[in-house]
């Protein structure tokens, strides 16, 4: 990892009672990087994601975003520093139309005219223009996922965290999402939590593998997929 | 929600209707009817306060009468002590707003869940009721104003022209003032809901987690909305106290709190016009059933409420809007639908 880190987690642990879900993890993300977090169920990747987004506070360790200590920051404070977050189960404004979902996101730091321009741009980019005036609550699951991604983009963040962005999408939608992620990565850093290996292959460069709360391997995608320890973990064997 | 009533045309229609009522009612109705109508308006303002925080802020307040009563008492005490109504009116809004802000701070920043918020607000109203009930005797006074316990405070000086305490408003003038204030509150809330603040508030109602993930602090938005609702309820209390020249602890009662909820439910939650209509209709019915002696008035009201909850659960205004939307071509609605948040 070269240059200054955009996001830096040092010795981060999270314990729930006697269970250590995340165990002294050191993690660093460079500006403009695309990183995938993978691992079997219960590996601690979702907990780690919640620590990064302020939905949970670490038991020990520190997390820094561009040098700011955000270890105990609230979710909205982390978002204000320029972190856009898409959660695993879509969190959208169901009772509002698609356009309003994006507008509420864009208006936080922009004047109304600029916010409307951003909304139109994001709608076009995600091919949501045709359904812009429909209530989000009545849309299909894949479309709701994109509305949420749209809301994150309209926020114009520097770092985007996506928790299982391809979950519940059709084959075609997954391909489009992968393309979108690569496109976003031209200008922004991303962390993608995913366990669909097919999807990982489509987008990944650098991959961090979690297992039993620790980082098992961190390497480029080919090496990770060829790694015997990773295969064992995914096939359910005990990790070495 | 139907987009009808939501655009600029709908707003203009509502205000035009308000102006017509303000001008026409004094011409067609006698003094008694006018005085009756004035208390309906006070209740409509009260219904708006809950309609706003519940329907748009998603804040379930079972004790909105707390702010209504505080506004009434703040007006009465200040009007007696200061001998003029200007400061009294301001205090009738400011005291409940400040009290709501304080209560809201503990509820929202303490991350109290919705159900407990209902319990807490209800309890606060009951506490205020009991406190005011036990202030009988001349030792309980604020300045020259005796609180009067369960007998309440009689002979409260009425609103006067600014700067001239001897020029009290006539019933007609007070009716017109009440209508103007009702339209002002309605307009103010419409503008607020169309603003950035209002749109974020509605978004928070829809999904608090998403709002936080976008960088908004829901606690702050809810607190501000709750305080605004408290201030509006206080204004209503001020109008009510002026109407009868009297305020008593029953203003804080559970029956009063329940009635406000019924206004909003019947008229239609998530609208502003609905609570106004609900308040006027219920108050009118109460008056009507009160003048006959064949049936118990509460029984008739109970049947009507039950009927509405079962048959028109979304409330009257949304139901009518949905019916109108069916006859008006969809093409016309498409343009207005981007205004989903600015409800009637």
Automatic annotation (TrEMBL), chain A:
Keyword Nucleotide-binding assigned: yes
Gene3D superfamilies to which the protein is assigned, alphabetical: P-loop containing nucleotide triphosphate hydrolases
Keyword terms of this UniProt record: ATP-binding, Nucleotide-binding, Transport
Source organism, top-level taxon: Bacteria
GO cellular component terms given for this protein: plasma membrane
Signal peptide feature range: none
Presence of keyword Nucleotide-binding: yes
SMART domains found in the cross-reference section: AAA
Domain ABC transporter positions: 7-237
Designated name of the protein: Branched-chain amino acid transport system ATP-binding protein/urea transport system ATP-binding protein
Organism: Acidiphilium rubrum
Automatic annotation (TrEMBL), chain B:
Keywords: Cell membrane, Membrane, Transmembrane, Transmembrane helix
Any single Gene Ontology cellular-component annotation: plasma membrane
Residue spans crossing the bilayer: 9-28, 34-54, 61-80, 86-108, 115-132, 172-193, 220-240, 260-286, 298-321
Record InterPro entries: ABC_transp_permease (IPR001851), LivM-like (IPR043428)
Protein name: Amino acid/amide ABC transporter membrane protein 2, HAAT family
One MF annotation (Gene Ontology) recorded for this entry: branched-chain amino acid transmembrane transporter activity
UniProt cross-references to Pfam families, sorted A to Z: BPD_transp_2
Membrane topology: Multi-pass membrane protein
Top-rank lineage group of the source organism: Bacteria
Primary location group: membrane
Compartment list: Cell membrane
């Amino acid at each position: 990892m070269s240059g200054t880190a955009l996001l830096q987690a040092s010795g981060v642990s999270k314990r729930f009672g006697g269970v250590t879900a995340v165990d002294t993890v050191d993690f660093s993300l460079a500006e403009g990087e695309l990183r995938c977090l993978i691992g079997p169920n219960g590996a601690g990747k979702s907990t780690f994601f919640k620590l990064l987004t302020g939905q949970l506070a670490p038991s020990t360790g520190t997390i820094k975003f561009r040098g700011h200590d955000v270890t105990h920051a609230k979710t909205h404070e982390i978002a204000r520093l320029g972190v856009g977050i898409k959660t695993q189960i879509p969190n959208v404004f169901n009772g509002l139309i698609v356009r309003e979902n994006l507008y509420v996101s864009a208006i936080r730091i922009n004047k109304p005219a600029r916010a409307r321009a951003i909304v139109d741009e994001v709608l076009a980019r995600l091919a949501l223009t045709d359904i812009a005036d429909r209530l989000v609550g009545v849309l299909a699951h894949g479309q709701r996922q994109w509305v949420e991604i749209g809301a994150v983009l309209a926020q114009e963040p520097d770092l985007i965290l996506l928790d299982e962005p391809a979950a519940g999408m059709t084959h075609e939608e997954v391909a489009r999402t992968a393309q979108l992620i690569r496109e976003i990565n031209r200008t922004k850093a991303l962390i993608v939590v995913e366990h669909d290996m097919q999807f990982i292959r489509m987008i990944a460069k650098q991959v961090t593998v979690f297992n039993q709360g620790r980082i098992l391997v961190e390497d480029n995608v080919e090496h990770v997929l060829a790694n015997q320890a990773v295969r064992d973990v995914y096939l359910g064997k005990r990790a070495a | 929600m139907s987009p009808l009533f939501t655009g600029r045309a709908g707003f203009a229609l509502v205000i035009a209707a308000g102006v017509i009522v303000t001008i026409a009612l004094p011409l067609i109705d006698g003094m008694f009817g006018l005085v009756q109508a004035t208390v309906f308006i006070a209740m409509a303002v009260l219904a708006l306060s809950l309609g706003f925080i519940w329907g748009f802020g998603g804040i379930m307040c079972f004790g909105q009468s707390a702010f209504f009563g505080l506004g009434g008492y703040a007006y009465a005490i200040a009007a007696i002590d200061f001998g003029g109504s200007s400061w009294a009116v301001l205090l009738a809004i400011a005291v409940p707003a400040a009290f709501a802000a304080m209560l809201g701070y503990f509820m929202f920043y303490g991350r109290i869940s919705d159900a407990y918020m209902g319990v807490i607000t209800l309890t606060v109203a009951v506490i205020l009721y009991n406190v005011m009930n036990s202030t009988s005797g001349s030792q309980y006074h604020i300045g020259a104003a005796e609180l009067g316990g369960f007998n309440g405070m009689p002979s409260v000086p009425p609103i006067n022209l600014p700067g001239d305490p001897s020029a009290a408003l006539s019933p007609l003038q007070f009716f017109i003032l009440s209508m103007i204030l009702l339209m002002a509150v309605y307009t103010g809330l419409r503008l607020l809901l169309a603003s950035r603040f209002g749109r974020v508030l509605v978004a928070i109602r829809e999904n608090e987690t998403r709002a936080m993930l976008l960088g908004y602090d829901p606690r702050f938005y809810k607190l501000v909305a709750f305080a605004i609702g408290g201030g509006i309820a206080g204004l209503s209390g001020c109008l009510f106290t002026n109407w009868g020249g009297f305020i008593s602890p029953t203003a804080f009662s559970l029956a009063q709190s329940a009635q406000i909820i019924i206004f909003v439910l019947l008229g239609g939650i998530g609208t502003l016009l609905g609570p106004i209509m609900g308040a006027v209709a219920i108050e009118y019915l109460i008056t009507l059933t009160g003048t006959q002696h064949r049936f118990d008035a509460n029984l008739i009201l109970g049947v009507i409420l039950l009927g509405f909850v079962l048959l028109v659960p979304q409330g009257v205004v949304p139901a009518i809007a949905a019916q109108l939307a069916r006859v008006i071509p969809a093409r016309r609605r498409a343009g207005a639908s981007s205004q989903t948040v600015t409800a009637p």
